[in-house]
Design brief:
The chain has 279 residues and is of the alpha/beta class. Helices cover 33% and strands 16% of the residues. It has a seven-stranded mixed beta sheet, sandwiched between helices. α5 packs parallel to α7. The longest helix is centred in the C-terminal third of the chain and has 19 residues. The radius of gyration is 21 Å and the shape is elongated. 35% of the residues are buried. Its EC number is 2.1.1.182. This is Ribosomal RNA small subunit methyltransferase A.
């Protein structure tokens, strides 16, 4: 028996593009350009896994193209009205619509331990948090792609030496190959955002485990960029490292001058002292 979804009135069952009202507090901007939706669906390889999770599908403009791919599609959506719309208009999603908060939900309840890709037109207000959750679940997420605010997408894919290079850049590149794909103008959304959007793709590295203490690596990167204008010698001062270590040339650099590999090297230098300090 087909599941009936509450919150969806009969007057909205005609695929009217205005059927679901965009909600500002959820950061909703519904993509209306079919060509761009198809391009985003094409950003995943669909290789090495058989399941895909779309975050925030809204009215399913991207979903319809994902359903054409050789993958088992699930969607996770917090907006009750969108969930109802999807349930009535996308029968192929029966049993695969999860009315949950992606940031708080245990994804093993959807996929068990199976690997899966993540894709979506991500709400700007939680996009950074989405990336951090993907990083935490990287052992199960070999591919990730989707649309962000352009500046955020560029920051994730940025290389050292740039003002945009920061915490997200370093941490993401530790585990994934990053690629900025294309820019999307505000005019293809309803309602249009005030800024451009950018689509990126992350492909997990073959070796995505760190040769250093992961928690310490995250701590060092965050501490360094919290005072990005200072040299590492000063921004990491609260770690109480010995003077002979702090004389190392790497401590004379600023965080944006270090690549991800160099931050790993820095962590390995600090690690013996940090572990000793915690005992």
């Amino acid at each position: 028996m087909k599941k009936r979804y509450r919150g969806y009135s009969s007057r909205k069952q005609n695929n009217d593009p205005n059927s679901v009202r965009a909600k500002k507090h959820l950061g909703q901007h519904f993509l209306t350009d079919e060509n761009i939706a198809a391009k985003i669906a094409d950003t995943l390889s669909y290789e090495g896994y058989s399941k895909t999770l779309e975050i925030g599908p809204g009215m399913g403009v991207l979903t319809k193209y994902l359903l054409k791919k050789d993958t088992e599609v699930h969607v996770i959506e917090i907006d009750t009205e969108s969930v109802a719309y999807l349930g009535e208009n996308y029968p192929d999603l029966e049993g695969a619509i999860h009315e949950q908060d992606f940031l708080k939900y245990d994804l093993s309840k959807i996929f068990g331990e199976a690997p899966f890709a993540v894709i979506g037109n991500f709400p700007y207000n939680i996009s950074t948090q989405i990336v951090f959750k993907v990083l935490a679940q990287r052992d199960r997420i070999p591919e990730f792609s989707g649309m962000f605010q352009k500046e955020v997408a560029q920051r994730i894919c940025e290389n050292k030496g740039s003002k945009a290079y920061g915490i997200l850049s370093v941490l993401t590149k530790a585990f994934y190959e990053t690629e900025y794909l294309f820019t999307v103008p505000p005019s293809v959304f309803n309602p249009p955002p005030k800024v451009d959007s950018g689509v990126l793709r992350l492909k997990r590295k073959e070796n995505y485990s760190l040769p250093c203490d992961e928690a310490l690596f995250f701590r060092i990167v965050k501490m360094a960029f919290q005072q990005r204008r200072k040299t590492l010698r000063n921004s990491l001062k609260s770690m109480n490292l010995p003077d002979n270590l702090r004389e190392d040339a790497i401590f004379g650099q600023r965080p944006e001058q270090l690549s991800t590999d160099e931050f790993i090297e820095l962590t390995l230098k600090i690690q013996p002292y940090a572990i000793s300090d915690q005992q």
